[in-house]
Description:
Elements: H1 2-12, H2 21-29, E1 34-37, H3 46-54, E2 59-62, H4 66-78, E3 83-86, H5 92-103, E4 109-112, H6 120-126, E5 133-136, E6 168-173, H7 178-187, E7 194-197, E8 205-211, H8 215-224, E9 230-234, H9 238-250, E10 255-258, H10 264-275, E11 281-284, E12 297-302, H11 309-316, E13 326-332, H12 334-346, H13 351-369, H14 374-381, E14 402-404, H15 406-418, H16 425-433, H17 438-442, H18 459-471, E15 475-477, E16 485-487, H19 492-495, E17 502-504, H20 533-550, H21 554-557, H22 560-569, H23 574-578, H24 585-604
Helix pairs in contact: 1-3, 2-3, 12-13, 13-18, 15-16, 16-18, 20-22, 20-24
Amino acid sequence: MExxxxxxxxxxxxxxxxxxxESLIGAILNGRDVLGVMPTGAGKSICYQVPAMLxxxxxxxxxxxxxxxxxxxxxxxxAGIPATYINSSLSARETNDRLRDIYEGQYKLVYIAPERxxxxxxxxxxxxxxxxxxxxxxxxxxSQWGHDFRPSYMAIVRLLxxxxxxxxxxxxxxxxTDVVKEDIVERLRLAxxxxxxxxxxxxxxxxxxxxxxxxxxxxxxxIRERPGQAGIIYASTRRxxxxxxxxxxxxxxxxxKYHAGLGEEERAQTQEAxxxxxxxxxxxxxxxxxxxxxxxxxxxxxxxxxxxxxxxYQEAGRAGRDGEPGECLLLxxxxxxxxxxxxxxQSEADDERKKNDxxxxxxxxxxxxxxxxLQRSIVRYFGEEGGEPCGRCSNCTDERExxxxxxxxxxxxxxxxxxxxxxxVTLTAKVLRGANDAKVRQFGFDGLRWYGRMxxxxxxxxxxxxxxxxxxxxxxxxxxxxxxxxxxEKVRPVLNGEEQVFQRVEPPAAASAGRSRSGxxxxxxxxxxxxxxxxxxxxxxxRKEIADREGVPPFVIFHDATLKEMCELRPTTENEMRRVxxxxxxxxxKYGKAFVSLIREYDDA
Length: 605
């Protein structure tokens, strides 16, 4: 591990490993397969990049997106590590040249898409070179029970037949339930792997859920309260992406759009402009962002509820990859559930898969309605103990008084029981509201003693209460297209008068909008003390100038967190600059003197 720490210092500019990294690297160097589950921004790539520098031959990295490969390779080359990628963006000549260079041993890491493993020519090359390590990024894609199953990932295990001796297999993902973890181990045939899960909590993220807001007005207000900050807005359909992007652009905001209906060249140009800070905002479907390496995304807004909690947390995790504060906002409306059910029904999945998809959809609906700490709710979803409330999310910072809704809850539970637990949320709400509805009359529910017992509330309010009671575990929804409400054991003490139920009153739509952090100034990224803001802006401008000249995204030069530390330490000599985290030997040789000179000029002015 001493050699590994030297590599970390020399090439990456850090003196110590983060949580989990040392265990995973040590296991790989000892020839053990590994499964690493680490949140976005926790430094998964270091776990295979450092061993690659210490192991003979070339490490193969299987990665799902072209953009991720290019970003990773740019960053490695900037750090002085020989790396390349092979994918469909290359011409035949470029591919041939790189394959020859791989054979000649000119690279330590080679990134490929899983589809490349179907190429007999590429597999033939692997039989002729030494491959000590195969790293599988976004490994949840191999699982049929994960949120982003990709059949092409099934080709990875066939790779083992072409490499002698068998390489160490290292699988990494940011999110995986226990079922998905077992699926990864089985499908990649990991041999008694060392498993490291560093935890799902992201201490730098603030999670918020806002229900039934005017989404466009809310988003505009949110963005304008964060001038210059980079953000991603996810929408569920191409039509909503187009409409939202046009609306924001019409207000003069710097915003692009990204979805599968656009041409490949246009998508690539938009993503590149966002990575290079030429665009502040992207409105996109979930086709955008998986594996995107832009470190200074300060917020992620979900215009619509995603299909499951895993997808949500993966996408929300694009915020704050640099460890600086990030905000994750989910705008929820009942129509989002209808849209996601339509997607499930239109899919070609079998009945078992659809049932699983409905279960996952119910989980994210529960998340949207829970009164618990949002961070703790997500951590528990992935099978960990929740721990203490985060103190940052919209539920933890909600200052409204709790209201005793025990009486209303008892009415709901009794009504569900009288309806034999065979009907859904909406019909239950209609019965309690006393609606003159044909279906209510058809089943004779207008004769129930509970009919109309909550006629002082609107149907919408009763629906929200039922969902909140489901989210808090008093009831659950069946895993089907038309889920029915089922009672749990948790209702018994409430019905017996032994326990009370409390809920918060639904806030006005703007109540939790844009809580800004006091004592900091937004300057397009990391929070910087006001006295340093001008220097930070000048450092960013220099970084952008160098990045444009070299044709790479700015974060490849230095992350925002590195620029922030320059503002704090004010390095004006080589030794002082080398103490800044994130500056290794190669990066100092390329860029260090320019930044030292700028800081000297700034301090002398």
